[in-house]
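Comment thread on ticket #2218

A.B. wrote:
> Attaching the input chain for the structure job we discussed in standup.
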Amino acid sequence: MQQGINSSILLERARSGDQIAIEQLLQMHDTALRVSIDINPKWRSILEVDDVLQVTYMEAVLDLSKFQGDEASLGTWLRSIAQNNLRDAIKGLEREKRPHPDRRTNAPVEQDAVLWLWNFLTGSAFSPSGKIAHDEINDVLEMKVAELPVAYADVVRLVYFKEQGIADAASALERTYGAVYLLHQRALDRLRELIGSESQFFSG
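C.D. wrote:
> Ran it. Output below, let me know if you need it in another format.
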């Protein structure tokens, strides 16, 4: 009973942003989470359990204040985040068939990366000759990228503004290929949410 009370207090402290409480809380669930992550042998040369956990913990910290459950359901919530991250990563890798470490993720080699990113995030089809100036799109993206968590922003800047491949970005950030691949996917998800009304503004 005392352990339950302590765990509940720890969760409340973590929700309020207490970094020590957050670390202790995640550490309590680390072993169970590791066991729950089953990576297909086909992708184990690219993705590691630690890659999935890095991004899972980052997402958990970002969204912990929104978590409405109690400590007893926290493990289920964390496993759900981990499984979503793993599933989305595998889907992305399967779409690419064979990830090429020297190619920009998603964007065709011959296409402007910033413009491609804008079109991908907004569902638009602007071209360099369109009415919306490239530098305006660039400015909006830079502003929105600055609102991302640092780890996400770093990946987006390297991959799209500096046009580096995932392997080069991973080397620059001193992270594994798999971790940066996952960070890249989550960064685009969050960036799409942040842009929101901006896509409507530029659609005219």
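A.B. wrote:
> Thanks. Noting for the ticket: Confidence is low (pLDDT under 50) at residues 1-5, 99-103.
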